[in-house]
Amino acid sequence: NAGVTQTPKFQVLKTGQSMTLQCAQDMNHNSMYWYRQDPGMGLRLIYYSASEGTTDKGEVPNGYNVSRLNKREFSLRLESAAPSQTSVYFCASSEVRAGNTIYFGEGSWLTVV
Amino acid sequence: GENVEQHPSTLSVQEGDSAVIKCTYSDSASNYFPWYKQELGKGPQLIIDIRSNVGEKKDQRIAVTLNKTAKHFSLHITETQPEDSAVYFCAASDQTGANNLFFGTGTRLTVIP
Predict the structure, then answer these.
(1) Residue B112 to residue A40: CA distance in whole angstroms
(2) Of A11, A111, B4, B73, which has fewest CB within 10 angstroms of its CB?
(3) Minimum mean pLDDT among A20-24, A58-62, A96-100, B53-57: which range?
(4) 3-state SS, residue A100
(5) Chain A 37-56, residues with CB within 8 Å of chain B CB atoms
(6) Residue B46's closest CA among A102, A3, A28?
């Protein structure tokens, strides 16, 4: 059982380049999330999808777009990468209610130079 | 919105000693408080959680206490072992929606053999 799988694990981008982080979960969860983790700032929610077909902004959505492709997959796109987007990105999933356990992927280390 | 503060940011203990990490929250509507452990290079994993109808919960060497009046909750790890070394995050939620889980900034625990 893979849980939450995200790719790529490491990526270096030049300022202005675009890229998409892919995420898939095999737990049949309704809700999926993208977080970024920066030193001293904990986990901050970028976007989430409460259910298939819906997406909403989180705390730090600027510079990102998302697509909930189907129930399993939720991608995060950086249209024009900036150095401020250098971070570790985590995809996660859970059942609908926030009180249910959130399961995280292994993380994607992104450096924008 | 909810504001979760976590202290200390770093903690070093001798193997076998106890470790305590404290969190405070601001929203009295919060009623679900999970704790996550993040090992190096991995995503956060749920280790224990507590709901507001309970004051304390234990699972082997880890325990969490909750004081709703003072709006704080704590993680206690007894008989610490080197494998307990990790970053620990607290979080709080009012369980009203998929996006309503707010994280603390993390505590890096180092257990010295």
Answers:
(1) 23
(2) A111
(3) A96-100
(4) coil
(5) 40-45, 48-50, 56
(6) A102
